[in-house]
Design brief:
With about 300 residues, the chain is of the alpha/beta class. It is about 40% helix and about 25% strand.
Length: about 300
């Protein structure tokens, strides 16, 4: 049995998987609002359940994670305390189990390649709209990390510049960005990005902000298409549960492409996750098993 864990900026998801990736149990909790890494790791282990039959733990989380599982960057506010720690060391010393760890977008990309929307693609880009914006570029099922693990770090790609200062993609295209932009624009509060998207049909303020947000995402997807030219871009995160929203994003993207990139045509297709709830959990389990198999050869 393998325990998969997806640490996100809002929620932490757990799943117990067999060696054939059959999900035996899954559960979800709110991400801890903690500033102490020791307490965070203690709380994480306390929520893992019975580990008696678990042989390995596979964890994915935001930010840059080294091949030796050091967390090299500060990510979403609720997981920022984990910066400059070694996630495998911290969990192993608390559980005695072997631990694999990687970036969450890498895990999601691998999950969608083997179990979802990216099957049989020659190249792909995974674009995850969440607390920030996650990205992963793959050739086949080979993750392209770049020299310093910055490749496809879409959150930190400038969408544009304002007086020589970069406007980072995550400040315009994430679910958090939608939430903050709406409340800066409207005096009618709404509890979440999801609520804002749903209200856009009847609330003019929400409709205006969502339209701007979609336009920014379309421009970001164009940057991805030009920089990487993948066969497919698969959109993940909570928005991928909303097929109408993803279709609107696709249409906004295609409108730009058809206007400016028709000779020769830019053929990158926009798709959405087939397993938005479990892609990360399945993918990190697959990567952990691949790592284990490689080390045993």
């Amino acid at each position: 049995m393998l325990l998969s864990i997806d640490i996100g900026g809002t929620f932490i998801k757990f799943a117990r998987l067999t060696e054939n990736y059959a999900m035996q149990a899954s559960w979800i909790i709110d991400t801890f609002a903690l500033t102490d890494a020791t307490v965070f790791y203690d709380s994480l282990v306390a929520n893992m359940g019975n580990l008696q039959d678990v042989k390995q733990i596979a964890i994915c989380l935001p930010g840059i994670v080294s091949d030796t599982y050091d967390i090299l960057s500060k990510a979403s506010p609720r997981v920022r305390s984990l910066y400059d720690t070694n996630v495998a060391h911290e969990i192993t010393k608390r559980t005695g189990l072997t631990v694999f760890a990687c970036n969450d977008a890498y895990a999601a990309a691998m999950g969608e390649f083997h179990f979802g929307s990216l099957k049989n693609t020659s190249s792909s880009f995974t674009y995850i709209i969440g607390t920030a914006v996650g990205g992963c570029f793959m050739i086949g099922d080979s993750i392209q990390k770049g020299t310093d693990n910055y490749a496809a770090n879409i959150s930190m790609m400038p969408l544009s510049f304002n007086e020589d200062k970069p406007i980072w993609t995550y400040t315009r295209c994430s679910a958090s960005a939608l939430y903050h932009r709406y409340h800066a624009y409207s005096k009618r509060p709404l509890p979440s990005a999801k609520a804002i998207i749903e209200a856009a049909e009847i609330n003019d303020d929400a409709a205006h902000v969502v339209d701007q947000w979609i336009a920014d995402i379309a421009h970001s997807l164009l940057q991805v298409s030009i920089a990487y030219n993948p066969q497919h871009i698969s959109i993940g995160g909570g928005v991928s549960n909303n097929s109408c929203l993803v279709q609107r994003i696709e249409y906004a993207y295609l409108e730009i492409v058809q206007q400016y990139f028709h000779t020769p045509p830019l053929s990158t297709k926009i798709v959405r996750f087939q397993n938005p709830q479990h892609a990360h959990l399945l993918g990190v389990a697959y990567l952990a098993n691949q790592k284990k198999t490689t080390s045993e050869i």
